[in-house]
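Dear support,

I submitted the protein below through the web form. The confirmation email said the job was done, but the results page showed an empty box. After a refresh the structure appeared. I'm attaching both so you can tell me whether what I see now is the final result or a partial one.
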Amino acid sequence: MLEEDLRAPADRQARWNIHRRFWWDVQAISTCPFHKVQLLKSCPACDPELERPVGWHHGSLTRCTRGHSLLRCESQAVTEDDAAADLYIVGRLTGARQIGSDFLDALPLDLALSVIKRFGIAAVHGPYAKIRGSGLDRNLHVMSAGFRVASEWPTNYVGLLDALASSAPGWGAKVVYGRLYRWAKSIPSGSRIENIKSILFDHCARRAYLHESSYIRRSHSSKFVGIRSLAAQLDRHPKVIAKCLEELGAKSSGPGRGNPESISAKNAKQVEIIVSRRLKRSDLNVLLGTSSRNTQMLISKGLITPGIVDPLLSRKIDDFDKLAVEQFLQKLRGSAPLVKEAGQDVFSMADIAKRLRMGSIAEVCDFMVRADLTASAVLENCKGIPSLLFDARSVEEAKVRIFNSLNSRQAARELGISLASLSIAINNDVLTRTLNQYGESRIPLSEVVRFWQIYTTPSILAKEYGTSARVVQRVMRKCDVAPILSSTHNWVFILYRLADVPRDFAREVAMTRARVYRRAA
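What the results page shows now:
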């Protein structure tokens, strides 16, 4: 830092401008804010056990008391942000201010330094770090952090309190704010820094519960409301109120017996707003138009999510978001028109559950959401789920898409055989059926494709070659091709392998038809 002082002009001797800055010995200053370097407190060449402070009264400005030169000491650069606090202090001492703070400028310098130190230690080392005897108050990072908190008042101070509250291991002013709370508590009324205490108390009352015997509650001007009394007023369980307060950022050990917690009236108003957007179980049943059993099944399926489920209680404390439930119903309703009565082609969810073998109403709702199906119509005189009407054909098509399989009628139509023939094929292991999650027997689409690739019937061959099924059977007998499946019990069903069909099958068909015509003639 003496580099500029050691430069001698042509008409002067070396070291002509060496002089002591009085603020070097100020304990709170640890940097030179003009040169952006850290001040040297002791000689680096001396034995650490014998080191003595460097200053006006100890040796000189160029040598230490043991004769070591200080001119070749390497300086440690600091950032402008780290030197901001020292620049402010030097400005207050010299009157040449280059940086200011409206909050600190209104305080005496010693009180401003105390505020900077306490803010800085809380910001850098947490709320439990000690000030006296720790040396933390002389750390340049602590001073610069404290000055940043106090410079933009009170925004940065509230930000510091938010950071302490978010990282606190528990609740209560002593736990959250630590020594900062103890210091704010000791600030007398009418003090110039009384707003430090009032902002901290407001912050605690807004973000945390307060015990009835809390000092903040007794000294705060705001009104407070007990959690249990608020729960009784809103006809909710105290756990629901606690959940709402958690959404506001409050922390607590829980509103149990023997723990008479309370919250500010401002928080109570916000809780009332949150509760107005929530539903109890009985209100949920009315909104959905379902019984308690069906409502519970919807919850079990995850279609309706409860806000609170307390495993420690003998019963569930269910709290539901009204907006989320309405959005769920709107997703099922879509843009369906209102009708006075159900038509022939549309059915309610209860009817669909029975007719299409889809289990309960909850399983139908789950399928509708998965298949992205919306109602075809809505009954005017009903509310909730019972008012929704769906097209059965659309549901069946969605089942084909979701389960990748066909029901018996669809499979028989796709294969070009009767239901009785389909049953014979399944019983003889020609086709494999599966059960879906509702217990419904279905034919996978892969089985239908495999059937076409391997098997054929006289009816199919007759359509392909333009003849009758009887002619096809005669040709197969003439070519010594035996069917792999032939059933005449209650229903005739004959099945051949495609690989067994003769290559000259078309010629044989033509010859057989000609022979039949000649006989007829």
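Response: this is the final, complete result; the empty box was a page-load delay. DSSP finds 25 helices and 17 strands in the chain.
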